[in-house]
Design a protein that fits this description.
alpha+beta, Outer membrane efflux proteins (OEP), 4-stranded antiparallel β-sheet
C-alpha cells in the first residue's frame, strides 16, 4: 500500500501558496488599472453628448481659471448648425473608429498585467529509471512563471496611458469633425445668401430692363444701354446656377460628415446675425493648454514613456518559475529468500521493498539576465523616446499658440470688415445706386455710371456674406485649437451689461 510523506504534502502547500500569492497580486493590480481605464473610456464615449460650452470673458485682471464661466450643455444652444454637429457626433464613421480604437487599447491592460499561462510537462520513459523502490516510468509536472510584480504594474500603466492617449485622439477627432461640420455648414450658408442676393438683383435688373426698354422705345437712350442690362442679367442667371451647383457640393460634404448619402437634401439656411467675440488671445492660449486634446494626448504619451523607462530599468531583475513534479514509481516484487537447508525453513519475507512510494519534487528556476547590452539598449531607447515626445510636446504647444493667434487675428480682421461694410460701405453704395438710378431716369447721367454703382453695391453685399462665413470659419478653427466650444455675446447684450466684456 502506498503512503504520501508529510514532507511532500508540506512542499505542495508551500508551492501553492507561492503561486497563489503571485497570481493574486498580479490579478489585483491588473484589475484596478483596468477598472480605472474602463471608467475613463465609458465616460469619454457616453458623456460626450453633454458637450461643454465655455464663455471666455475679456478681463485682464482675472486669471485664466477665473475666465471660464459655469459650463453649459451644448443642447441649450439654438444655433442651426448644432443640429448637424450632434448628428455627426453620433454617426460620423471616423469618430466611431476612434471609439473602437480606444476600447481596443483598453483590452490590452488585462493582457499585459496577467501572469503567463502555466506549463504542463510530461515525461514518458520507454526505458524506466531503476531505483531501489521500483521503476520510474512517468513524470508529470506543472510550473508557473511569476515575473516581478512591478513589471506587470509598469506594463499595465503603459497600456493605461496608451488607452488615455486613444481617448484624447478620440476627442481630437471630435473637435476636428465639429470644425469640419461648421465649415461645411457655413459654406452652404454663404451659397444660400449668394443665391438669394443674386435672385434679388436679377429681379432688380429685370425692373431696370423694363425701364431702359421703355426709354429705348421712345428714343431717349441708346440700344447699347439695353444690351448692357441684358448682359448683366445673363451673367446673374449664370451666377445663380453656379452657386446652386456649388451648394450641392457643400451639401455632399456635410452629408459625408454626418454619414448620410451625398444627395440628401439640406434645408435652406436662414440669415443670422453674427455675435461678437469677446476674449483675449492670452486667455485662449491658457485654455488650450488645459483643454486641447492634441496636447493632452502628448502629455499622456510622456507619462507612457516614463513608465517605459521604469520598465526598462527592471530588465536586470529575473523572472522566477516555480513548479511541482510527480514521478510515478512501479514497485518491485518482494525479495523472497531461499529455504534454509539446515532448518528447512524459509526466512520471513521483508515486505518493505514492495511499497514503492511515488516521488514528489519542487522546482525553482529563473532566467539570468547577463546580456547587459540588451537591457542597456532598451533603457537608452526608452530615454530617447521620452526626449522625442517632450520635444514634440513643446513644438505642438508653440504650433497651437500660433494657430490660435492666426485664427484670432482673422476673427478680428473679419469683424472689423463686417462693421465697416454694414455701417458704411453697403448703405453708402446702395444710396449711391438709388441716386444714380433717379438721375438716369431723369436723363442726368449715363447708363455706365448706373451699372458701375450697381456692381459696387452688389460687390459689397457679396463681400458681407463672404466675410461672415470667413469669420465663422476662423472662429471654428479657434475653437478647434482651444478644444472647447466658446460662447459669444451679441453687442446688444454687451451694452445691457455695461460693456464690461470690452475691457482690456
Amino acid at each position: 500500500m502506498r503512503t504520501r510523506s508529510s514532507t511532500g504534502m508540506f512542499s505542495q502547500r508551500a508551492l501553492v501558496v507561492v503561486i497563489s500569492a503571485g497570481a493574486f497580486g498580479a490579478f489585483s493590480a491588473g484589475c484596478a488599472t483596468y477598472e480605472r481605464s474602463r471608467h475613463d473610456v465609458d465616460r469619454a464615449v457616453h458623456d460626450w453628448h453633454r458637450r461643454r460650452a465655455t464663455l471666455v470673458q475679456r478681463h485682464a485682471s482675472t486669471s485664466p481659471s477665473q475666465q471660464v464661466d459655469d459650463e453649459v450643455p451644448a443642447e441649450t444652444s439654438n444655433r442651426p448648425v448644432d443640429r448637424y454637429i450632434r448628428e455627426a457626433m453620433e454617426r460620423n464613421p471616423d469618430i466611431q473608429a476612434a471609439m473602437a480604437d480606444a476600447r481596443a487599447k483598453l483590452e490590452r491592460i488585462p493582457q499585459v498585467t496577467s501572469l503567463p499561462d502555466p506549463l504542463l510537462r510530461t515525461v514518458i520513459r520507454p526505458e524506466p529509471i531503476q531505483t531501489a523502490a521500483g521503476d520510474m516510468y512517468f513524470t508529470l509536472g506543472v510550473s508557473q512563471t511569476i515575473p516581478l510584480l512591478t513589471k506587470l504594474e509598469r506594463a499595465g500603466n503603459i497600456a493605461a496611458a496608451e488607452t488615455r492617449m486613444a481617448l484624447e485622439r478620440l476627442n481630437s477627432k471630435r473637435v476636428q469633425v465639429i470644425a469640419d461640420v461648421e465649415r461645411a455648414y457655413w459654406q452652404i450658408y454663404r451659397l444660400d445668401r449668394y443665391v438669394e442676393l443674386t435672385r434679388d438683383n436679377r429681379l432688380l435688373l429685370e425692373d431696370l430692363e423694363r425701364v431702359v426698354d421703355t426709354q429705348y422705345q421712345v428714343g431717349k437712350v441708346q440700344q447699347q444701354d439695353l444690351l448692357r442690362v441684358q448682359t448683366e442679367l445673363a451673367k446673374l442667371r449664370d451666377d445663380e446656377h453656379r452657386y446652386q451647383i456649388r451648394r450641392s457640393s457643400a451639401v455632399a460634404a456635410l452629408n459625408h460628415l454626418t454619414d448620410h448619402p451625398p444627395q440628401r437634401e439640406v434645408p435652406t439656411t436662414e440669415p443670422v446675425d453674427v455675435p461678437t467675440v469677446r476674449a483675449d488671445v492670452e486667455s485662449l492660449v491658457a485654455l488650450a493648454a488645459d483643454h486641447n486634446p492634441e496636447l493632452a494626448a502628448l502629455r499622456e504619451q510622456v507619462e507612457r514613456d516614463r513608465e517605459q523607462i521604469e520598465l526598462a530599468d527592471l530588465g536586470y531583475w529575473p523572472d522566477v518559475t516555480v513548479g511541482v513534479e510527480w514521478n510515478y514509481v512501479d514497485p518491485r516484487g518482494p525479495f523472497i529468500p531461499p529455504v534454509n537447508p539446515q532448518t528447512g525453513v524459509r526466512p520471513p519475507i521483508n515486505r518493505k521493498s514492495e511499497v514503492g512510494d511515488d516521488n514528489w519534487a519542487l522546482t525553482v528556476q529563473m532566467n539570468i539576465p547577463i546580456w547587459s547590452q540588451r537591457v542597456e539598449a532598451a533603457k537608452r531607447e526608452a530615454r530617447q523616446r521620452l526626449l522625442a515626445t517632450q520635444s514634440e510636446l513643446r513644438s505642438t504647444e508653440n504650433l497651437i499658440a500660433f494657430r490660435i493667434f492666426d485664427a484670432w487675428s482673422r476673427v478680428e480682421a473679419q469683424e472689423h470688415t463686417l462693421r465697416v461694410l454694414e455701417a458704411e460701405l453697403i448703405p453708402q453704395s446702395r444710396q449711391t445706386y438709388e441716386v444714380t438710378l433717379t438721375a438716369y431716369q431723369a436723363g442726368e447721367t449715363d447708363f455706365l455710371s448706373l451699372i458701375d454703382n450697381w456692381r459696387r453695391w452688389l460687390h459689397f453685399e457679396l463681400m458681407r456674406h463672404r466675410e461672415t462665413v470667413d469669420l465663422e470659419t476662423a472662429f471654428a478653427d479657434l475653437q478647434r485649437e482651444v478644444g472647447l466650444q466658446l460662447l459669444r455675446r451679441d453687442a446688444d447684450a454687451d451694452e445691457q451689461t455695461g460693456g464690461t466684456n470690452d475691457e482690456s
